[in-house]
């Protein structure tokens, strides 16, 4: 992967620096003055979180905070930026009083809640949201939050060690519209395996996917952290691929989105919320242990050590906005057309322009 400047002896690539600069431009003035790790695993350089938040919190406290309802899934570790922003005063620093609305159900219900004003914004997976957004929900994506968190695990006993070995096999999934199914269907298609006829996708309750493989009813499973990370600790499983594999190493996974009416009526609030979540994502990247402790307090599954390891394995240092994010949305759109998730007639460039809102410039 060419964009990993933290590897010993490598300098940052031009693309990484450009992307980092774009993300930094989306953050408040003065943010990032403390030391942080640039990318990937390894010890973070110590920094003082208070130096980032205290001046802004003091300023925000002088006036009333803007009430915002943020929809999220409290079981998804990839949304750890949300509770961190609340507990470390980042939302307040941006003049926001954020109330969480936990949606563990269907994405369509979450997006409908945002579109109809029951929630103002949400954090979720791009590959779960793009199909409903194609259908016309008045919800706009304003930023990418991180890459990673989807994993395809194979049974060692079945010899599933790469994508090619899945031909003719059964893959356990939690539902047929899941981001994991959508993403790994793309990898199957790229490997020359028809994702509709070349494998069988079999649905099970999310917490029982590993048991389906252990019983031999499936030879692989596709899902998201924290479940997949915890199951990977079982020596019966091997990691076949993730949504950071190969050409997807710099692709965002989770996104921040808001109701269109909020952006039109109160752009300042939309901007503040986007900046706050981006800043919190930076803090997750710089101090995953702190983020894990906070997320654990909100009911996150797994030990703090496991949760921190999950966060380090995800690319919370990569938060695309602007042209870079629109480029990624176009790529996802083109790929989802190939596996019959989006309509073949959809103009993905126009689609990306329609579903993305630049609230930072």
From TrEMBL:
Protein name: SsuA/THI5-like domain-containing protein
Organism: Methylorubrum aminovorans
Pfam family, one: NMT1
Alphabetized PROSITE patterns for the sequence: TAT
Domain SsuA/THI5-like span(s) in chain numbering: 84-197
InterPro entries linked to this entry: SsuA/THI5, TAT_signal
């Amino acid at each position: 992967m060419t964009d990993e400047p933290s590897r010993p002896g490598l300098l940052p690539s031009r693309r990484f620096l450009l992307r980092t600069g774009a993300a930094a431009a989306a953050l408040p003035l003065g943010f990032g003055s403390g030391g942080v790790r640039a990318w990937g695993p390894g010890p973070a350089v110590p920094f003082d979180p208070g130096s980032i938040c205290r001046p802004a919190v003091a300023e925000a406290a002088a006036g009333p905070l803007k009430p915002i309802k943020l929809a999220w899934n409290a079981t998804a570790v990839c949304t750890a930026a949300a509770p961190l922003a609340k507990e470390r005063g980042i939302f307040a620093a941006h003049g926001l009083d954020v109330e969480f609305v936990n949606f563990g159900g269907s994405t369509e219900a979450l997006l409908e809640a945002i579109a109809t004003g029951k929630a103002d914004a949400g954090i979720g997976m791009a590959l779960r949201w793009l199909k409903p957004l194609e259908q016309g929900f008045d919800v706009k994506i304003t930023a990418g939050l991180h890459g990673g968190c989807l994993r395809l695990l194979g049974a060692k006993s079945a010899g599933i060690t790469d994508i090619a070995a899945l031909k003719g096999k059964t893959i356990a999934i939690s539902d047929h519209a899941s981001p994991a199914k959508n993403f790994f269907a793309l990898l199957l298609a790229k490997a020359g395996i028809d994702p509709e006829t070349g494998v069988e996708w079999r649905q099970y309750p999310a917490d029982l996917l590993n048991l389906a493989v252990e019983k031999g009813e499936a030879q692989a499973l596709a899902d998201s952290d924290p479940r997949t990370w915890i199951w990977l600790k079982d020596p019966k499983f091997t990691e076949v691929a993730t949504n950071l594999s190969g050409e997807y190493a710099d692709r965002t996974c989770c996104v921040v989105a808001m109701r269109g009416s909020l952006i039109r009526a109160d752009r300042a609030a939309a901007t503040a919320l986007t900046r706050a979540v981006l800043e919190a994502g930076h803090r997750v990247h710089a101090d995953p242990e702190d983020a894990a402790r906070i997320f654990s307090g909100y009911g996150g599954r797994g030990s703090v050590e496991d949760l921190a390891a999950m966060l380090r394995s995800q690319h919370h240092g990569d938060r695309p906005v602007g042209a870079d994010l629109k480029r990624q949305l176009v790529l996802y759109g083109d790929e989802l057309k190939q596996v019959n998730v989006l309509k073949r007639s959809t103009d993905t460039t126009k689609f990306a322009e329609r579903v993305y809102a630049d609230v930072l410039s």
